[in-house]
């Protein structure tokens, strides 16, 4: 297959060859006999679900893990990569999903790290000049003297790429680089990536966004359960065929929403202003209505006020001003307990931190919201038999894969933990659902299941506010889209009118934010 | 009461405040560097005690206060090796390890004092001072600035030196990176363990020096000589927001508050139970400072977090 690709340049010697890589962890084979090759000037995508072995493979490549078996060669000669700094010396750089930047240092200082002798005086002058040159060459605009903490996510990513290029890496691994970017930023990133390949560098691209994979890749290797399940090119594949290789069965991408009449407004938010963690105003007067029988999707890049909105509504964060009405009743100062008793169920964005207690059993987590009332409580004591009955019922209703209901929740996979949270929140009598990032970081199968559950809740006439950074997810499920940027609403679009391009522009702040007075 | 506010008394009080600030300043500067690298050492007090005893005993036995000072530095460095082994090599929990070091220092110095010295004896003080003519020809300002032992000038000179080290050298850059995001520093080939060990050695050596300064100022040692100064020094690191100049301001504030209390007592303004209460002023100030400064702006993000490369 690669010979077709290399048609313009018939003899391309691989830059990187990983052969027969096997890595075992206690109880799992993370990588089994994996072959992976990158040609110079090419983008080779690694595709796979969480836990398929992508990150183990790139961690081996970057010296963070040592393989149990297999060999790696770079530019034709065998190499052993014992640490990240050895990887960089070999010519391999990595852009981590969580950037490896020191927030309290400037871009130039971050680049300078590890370059000087310990007892020398830092001379940033030449480093600044070189950063400007690299930035110029590859269209990576950053100010060398800006502090990382002051920079937006896209800029941080550019700084991270510059840091690698400054060290002359020839193979760059990008771990989910688009997860934190707006669509226009993704376009810019791809332009930079194309310049890098034109320059003869090899790229390893990791993503689960199939559209992007189809757009940027030259070759695609799909991993499933630690093994290579397919090797292909965009020309030979479709989104469906790639998903099939990832999951091992056909996957539904498009959803049709059943026609149904809208009910009363259930969840109303008026001029909500809420402060963020650092005391800054994170929501500048936001208005949202959700009626019975509809899903309203909030989209935006992470950190544009979505978390503050959810936490403000459920009473986890003090509200500065504004009003919240549930079921037509005004809630002055919401508390989680009061909000729940008024009929709002909440799926928080971090299932392990806020959604569940890892050290509790599946059964305990499943009754956490009504562990203080009958039938779970009888004469002041927990009724173990009702807990048992309820949890077994939910485990089977929501097909939660767990050895039994007394398994510790943290031992389940991410998708199953999320199903525990969903089961608990969706099974009550709540008329309103506030669902944040319901499928972040979980496998396609579980995500598909959760999407179905959301649509079932919709058809039952629930009012659903869906907050997600996954644009495809929100666009597939929502009746209406609300785009947030820097704590304000940039636009409201109906399902029929929404296009990726338009939503992308709004997400990146193009346009006029709604004023606090607007309805 | 009004005769308290004479120039002479105020000058003397300030001069004494500057002297009292020195152990705080030395220990806090060292601890600030350690914390910038991400290592909290609650054992500063214990290391100060060990430094103080080593300096006192060496001075007592050899008759040389300078030699005593050197021993203070040496045992501080040695304690640094111990603490680096515990926290950097063994990845032990820093808070608890530091408390262990404190308890060790407290008990061990008392034991040695009982066994080796027994009844309190005077040792030689460190009395190297600027030449007398400097004080005589500069009046009040001279009394304030030039009447101290050499260690005080060393302590204040260390403030710009540490500032320069932290902001202008590769070592300082590494320290700041390692305390903030050790994984990032590691991927760039900075030895996280090496940098942390160096910062710990510096911090403990400074704590040893601070203890020695305390003992050699008075030429004396007793059980728990430091009386909580090491803990206040840690509080001052927070007060000073991990910056040398901030730490110095805090040390001066504490020194001057302490000397003011003594002045008030000596001049009979306060007496009896009031003066006992007044002696709590530095402790009360510590609590107030910690409450007010508890916003922790500028706290190194990786403080107290052991580093492992598990990816």
Q: How does the SSE layout of this entry go?
A:
The complex is a heterodimer of chains A (519) and B (311).
Chain A: H1 2-5, E1 16-25, E2 28-38, E3 43-48, H2 54-61, E4 69-74, E5 77-79, H3 84-90, E6 92-95, H4 107-112, H5 125-138, H6 153-166, E7 171-175, H7 183-198, E8 202-206, H8 210-216, E9 219-224, E10 227-232, H9 239-247, E11 265-275, E12 281-291, E13 295-299, H10 306-314, E14 319-326, E15 329-331, H11 336-341, E16 344-347, H12 351-355, H13 362-366, E17 377-378, E18 381-382, H14 384-397, H15 414-426, E19 432-436, H16 444-459, E20 463-467, H17 471-477, E21 480-485, E22 488-494, H18 500-507
Chain B: H1 7-36, H2 44-62, H3 65-89, H4 94-117, H5 132-136, H6 139-146, H7 150-168, H8 170-180, H9 182-187, H10 192-218, H11 229-239, H12 244-266, H13 272-278, H14 281-292
Helix pairs in contact in B: 1-6, 1-7, 1-8, 1-10, 1-11, 1-12, 2-3, 2-4, 2-10, 2-11, 3-10, 7-8, 8-10, 11-12, 11-14
Mean of pLDDT of chain A = 89
What's the CATH first level of chain B? Mainly Alpha
- Oligomer state equals heterodimer
The name of the CATH superfamily of the largest domain in chain A reads: P-loop containing nucleotide triphosphate hydrolases
Would you tell me which CATH topology of the largest domain in chain A applies?
Answer: Rossmann fold
Report strand order across the widest sheet of chain A: 6-7-8-3-9-10
CATH topology annotation of chain B = ABC transporter involved in vitamin B12 uptake, BtuC
Terminal residue distance of chain A: 57 Å
CATH 2nd-level architecture of chain B:
Orthogonal Bundle
Overall shape of chain A: it is globular
Low-confidence stretches of chain A: none
| Helix/strand structural class of chain B | mainly alpha
Compute the number of helices of chain A.
18
Strand content of chain A: 25-35%
Strand content of chain B: under 5%
- What structural class do the secondary elements of chain A suggest? alpha/beta
């Amino acid at each position: 297959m690669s010979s077709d690709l290399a048609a313009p340049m018939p003899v391309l010697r691989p830059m990187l060859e990983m052969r027969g890589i096997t890595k075992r962890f206690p109880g799992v084979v993370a990588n089994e006999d994996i072959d992976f090759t990158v040609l110079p000037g090419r983008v080779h995508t690694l595709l796979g679900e969480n836990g398929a072995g992508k990150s183990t493979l790139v961690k081996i490549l970057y010296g963070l893990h040592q393989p149990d078996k297999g060999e790696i060669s770079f530019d034709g000669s065998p190499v052993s990569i014992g640490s990240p700094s050895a990887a960089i010396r070999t010519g391999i750089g990595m852009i981590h999903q969580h950037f490896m930047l020191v927030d309290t240092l400037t871009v130039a200082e971050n680049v300078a790290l590890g370059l000087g002798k310990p007892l020398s005086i830092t001379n940033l002058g030449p480093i600044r000049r070189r950063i400007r040159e690299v930035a110029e060459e590859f269209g990576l605009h950053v100010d060398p003297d800006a502090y990382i903490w002051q920079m937006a996510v896209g800029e941080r990513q550019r700084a991270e790429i510059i840091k690698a290029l400054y060290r002359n890496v020839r193979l760059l691994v990008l771990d989910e680089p688009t997860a934190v970017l707006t669509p226009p930023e993704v376009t810019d990133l791809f332009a930079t990536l194309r310049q890098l390949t034109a320059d003869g560098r090899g790229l390893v691209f990791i993503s689960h966004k199939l559209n992007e994979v189809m757009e940027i890749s030259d070759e695609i290797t799909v991993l499933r359960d630690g093994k290579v399940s397919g090797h292909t090119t965009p020309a030979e594949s479709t989104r469906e065929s790639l998903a099939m290789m990832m999951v091992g069965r056909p996957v539904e991408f498009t959803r049709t929403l059943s026609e149904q009449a809208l009910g009363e407004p259930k969840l109303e938010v008026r001029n909500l202003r809420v402060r963020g963690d650092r005391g800054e105003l994170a929501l500048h007067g936001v208005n949202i209505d959700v009626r019975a029988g509809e899903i309203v999707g909030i989209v935006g890049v992470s950190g544009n006020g979505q978390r503050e909105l959810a936490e403000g509504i459920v009473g986890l964060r003090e509200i500065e001003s504004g009003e919240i009405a549930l079921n037509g009743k005004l809630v002055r100062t919401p508390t989680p307990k009061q909000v729940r008793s008024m009929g709002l169920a909440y799926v928080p964005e971090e299932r392990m931190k806020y959604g569940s207690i890892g050290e509790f059993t599946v059964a305990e987590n499943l009754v956490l919201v009504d562990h203080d009332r009958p039938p779970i409580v009888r004469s002041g004591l927990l009724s173990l038999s009702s807990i048992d009955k309820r949890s077994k019922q939910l485990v089977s209703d929501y097909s939660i894969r767990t050895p039994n209901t007394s398994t510790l929740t943290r031992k389940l996979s991410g998708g199953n933990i999320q199903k525990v949270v969903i089961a608990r929140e969706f099974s009550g009598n709540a008329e309103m659902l506030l669902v944040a990032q319901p499928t972040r970081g979980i496998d396609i199968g579980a995500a598909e299941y959760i999407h179905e559950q959301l649509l079932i809740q919709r058809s039952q006439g629930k009012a659903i506010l869906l907050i997600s950074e996954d644009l495809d997810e929100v666009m597939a499920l929502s009746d209406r889209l609300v785009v947030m940027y820097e704590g304000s609403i940039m636009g409201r679009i109906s399902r029929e009118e929404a296009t990726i391009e338009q939503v992308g522009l709004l997400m990146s702040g193009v346009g006029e934010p709604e004023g606090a007075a607007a309805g | 009461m009004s005769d308290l506010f004479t120039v002479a008394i105020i000058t003397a009080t300030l001069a004494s405040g500057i002297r009292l600030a020195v152990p705080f300043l030395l220990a806090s500067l060292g601890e600030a560097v350690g914390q910038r690298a991400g290592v909290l050492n609650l054992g500063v007090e214990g290391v100060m005690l060990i430094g103080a005893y080593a300096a006192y005993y060496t001075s007592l036995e050899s008759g040389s206060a300078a030699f005593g000072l050197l021993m203070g530095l040496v045992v501080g460095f040695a304690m640094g090796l111990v603490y680096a082994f515990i926290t950097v090599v063994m990845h032990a929990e820093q808070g608890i390890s530091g408390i262990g070091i404190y308890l060790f220092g407290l008990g061990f110095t008392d034991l040695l004092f009982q066994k080796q010295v027994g009844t309190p004896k005077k040792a030689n003080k460190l009395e190297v001072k600027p030449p007398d003519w400097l004080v005589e020809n500069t009046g009040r300002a001279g009394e304030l600035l030039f009447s101290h032992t050499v260690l005080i000038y060393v302590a204040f000179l260390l403030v710009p030196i540490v500032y320069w080290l932290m902001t202008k050298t590769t070592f300082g850059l590494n320290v700041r990176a390692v305390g903030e995001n050790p994984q990032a520093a590691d991927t760039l080939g900075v030895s996280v363990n090496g940098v942390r060990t160096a910062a710990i050695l510096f911090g403990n050596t400074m704590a040893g020096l601070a203890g020695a300064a305390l003992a050699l100022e008075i030429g004396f040692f007793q059980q728990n000589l430091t009386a909580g100064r090491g803990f206040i020094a840690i509080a001052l690191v927070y007060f000073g927001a991990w910056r040398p100049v901030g730490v110095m301001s805090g040390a001066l504030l504490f020194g001057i508050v302490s000397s003011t209390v003594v002045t008030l007592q000596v001049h009979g303004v306060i007496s009896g139970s009031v003066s006992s209460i007044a002696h709590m002023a530095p402790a009360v100030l510590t609590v107030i400072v910690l409450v007010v400064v508890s916003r922790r702006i500028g706290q190194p993000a990786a403080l107290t977090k052991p580093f492992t490369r598990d990816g």
